[in-house]
Amino acid sequence: MTDDATEQIRDELQRLEQRVEALVQRCRRLDEENRVLRQSQETLNAERASLLEKNELARSRIEAMISRLKSMEHH
pTM to 2 decimals? Predict the structure, then answer.
């Protein structure tokens, strides 16, 4: 193998190594981004559940008030 061929192979391997390293870094960033997004989604789901519960409680109270008002009307 000639020195030129050896040098070309080294250059190609170095470029390949750089591309692999860039892919590894991108995967790490995406893993972290996914972790943050999952955590955010869990928080939002918990907030949504809480709001739905509060909404249901408010609806029940309003319905009870309407019933009391209607019964006061009839008396």
Answer: 0.67
